[in-house]
Design goal:
The chain is an alpha+beta fold and about 80 residues long. It has three helices and four strands. The protein has one domain.
């Protein structure tokens, strides 16, 4: 599976992780950033590890906010 993660874009990797529950994937910070950028259409400013996932700081329409990405790749802002 590591080969797949290198061959496909990060946003697609996150989508695949969400579609395959029970499969062990390690979410990377770049995959978390890509997931938030895709979900919000904003510019990622920072990524911090948080528990089993990441906190991602994003600028959307002139506002800055933090989003959470779980270890499975789901995004909440």
């Amino acid at each position: 599976m590591n080969v797949l993660k290198k061959l496909i874009p990060a946003a697609l990797a996150v989508a695949l992780m969400s579609a395959m529950p029970g499969t062990a994937f390690a979410l990377s910070s770049s995959a978390a950033a890509a997931a938030v950028a895709s979900a919000t259409g904003g510019q990622v400013l920072a990524v911090q590890a948080s528990g089993g996932g990441y906190r991602v700081k994003v600028r959307v329409g002139g506002q800055v906010k933090w989003c959470s990405v779980s270890g499975s790749g789901s995004v909440s802002c």
